[in-house]
Amino acid sequence: MPPATPSPATASAHERSGIFFAVAAFAMWGAFPAYFLLLRPAGAFEIVDWRVLFSLGFCLIVITITRTWPALGAIVRQPRQLFMLALAAVLIFINWEVYVWAVLAGHVVETALGYFINPIVTVLLGVVLLRERLRMAQWAAVGISAIAVLILAIGYGSFPWVALSLAFSFGLYGLVKKRVGPQVDALSGLTLETSWLVPLAVVQLVFVQFDTGLSFGHGFGHSLLLLSAGIVTALPLLAFAAAARRLPLVYMGLIQYLTPVLQFVFGAFVLHEAMPTERWVGFGLVWLALIVLSVDLIVTGRARRASALPA
What we know:
The chain is an all-alpha fold. Helices cover about 80% and strands about 0% of the residues. It contains 14 helices and no strands. Helix 3 (about 45-65) packs across helix 11 (about 230-245). It starts with 7 loop residues before the first helix and ends with a helix.
């Protein structure tokens, strides 16, 4: 028998809960700069290393409580999936290192730029790596973004490597995760990705200990904040996974802009980072490109739904 179609009331409740999970996930990611600044005097290397180790510990506890070890074991027995998750781990490690360093160095606005550019980079990666064909509006968004990056580079007086590193590392991470597919859930994926990174994290912690010394253990409050990195890392990922199961891609694509908006507001108006005219022009062009991309996404999604309806 075909599965029962959910009632309108059930579907509406499902969608509302999906919007709640999506807003929660992207709002938590948007608040990350404030959280990482609280972790001073720990440096970027130490913060990311503890984040890896404590995230793994938190995931193992949740897997034990939810009794999902069989699902994790099934993934471990698939060499291709393990390799893809190792590649994802390297990309997300690069993303974390650059992001935390940039926040601590006072470049929060540039990290926001990176995540504003990310959807456009994802489109571009589809062309370069997957040989996808772009619609006219998508090409226009890519072109406008290229002009924005050029203006920002001239305004900065240097190449905006932080923003582009974040955009490309997270774009490639998303591409790898897409290849992994739905058979790897968020909890199992984070567990295996952090497992791959444990040796690197331990080596970096040893290096930090001999270089400047570890801050963990110096003060109960500070150590507790570092210890919470595992929960802080895992919670938005789990909320994102819950939202993705309940919402159409169009909704997820629009709500994701909440993260860089919060980061931009925090950097520009709370930390009072410099916003010269060139930055405003560059950001304005990026926002224009995102409007073009979003409108195209909405119109195309409606057309596809309309064509799927019976005559």
